[in-house]
Amino acid sequence: MAGQEVTFDEVAAAATSLQNDGERVTIEAVSDLLGGAAPASVHQHLTAWRASGAKPAEVATPELPEALLDALGGWARQFAVDSGAGSQDALAQSQRDVEELLAQVASLMAARDEALATLEERGESIARLTAELRDARNVATDALVGKAKDRLAIDGKDNQLADLRAQIERNVAASAAESDARLSAEMELVGAVTARDNFAAEIKELRAQLDAAQAERRGARA
């Protein structure tokens, strides 16, 4: 069978036999057991056999001396004590860390409550200022409306005064024209009276002259 191909069953049987004998299961051992089978073929089937869950060879459990066991037991107990002390220190440190975290949380909660209180106060201040601003706007609006009404009333009175002034000016102009006409008529009347008086004086003088001439004529006849 030297250098020949072998089957999986042959390799598996040889490997199991070596394992039961307490020997190492290797390619060389299986190949020798099969009469020098081809190592490549043995390797392929041996890998499949190992993958199929072959049990390793049983190894004898060593027995330790009692003194060594006692020493190991003491060491284990001391290690447990030391480990416990470390765990207790770690636990205490953890408790301190937790207490510190709780203190930080309490501080943060207090800061949050203070911030909320401040925010509430600012909200009340904003609401109060908003109400005051609204009232101020209403007062300003009422004042502007009142001023506008007063202005309209003043404008109305100004219009009335303008109309009255125009009427007075018209009346004054009419009165002045009438006065001028009357004065002109009076002046004309004065001129007429003066002319009449002048005519009367001239007539009187002419009558006197006529009377004198008649008297002279009568004297001449006598």
Strand content: under 5%
Largest sheet: none
Number of strands: 0
- Unreliable stretches covering 5 or more consecutive residues: none
Oligomer: single chain
Mean pLDDT, to the nearest integer, reads 76
Shape: rod-shaped
Entry keywords:
rod-shaped; 85% helix; 4 helices; mainly alpha; 222 residues
Give structural notes:
This is Replication region DNA-binding N-term. The chain has about 220 residues and is mostly helical. It has a domain at about 1-55. Helices cover about 85% and strands about 0% of the residues. The chain contains 4 helices and no strands. The model has no long low-confidence stretch (mean pLDDT about 75).
Helix and strand layout, with pairings?
Blueprint: H1 8-20, H2 27-33, H3 39-51, H4 66-221
Helix pairs in contact: 1-2, 1-3, 2-3
Short description:
The protein is 85% helix and 0% strand. The protein has helices at 8-20, 27-33, 39-51, 66-221.
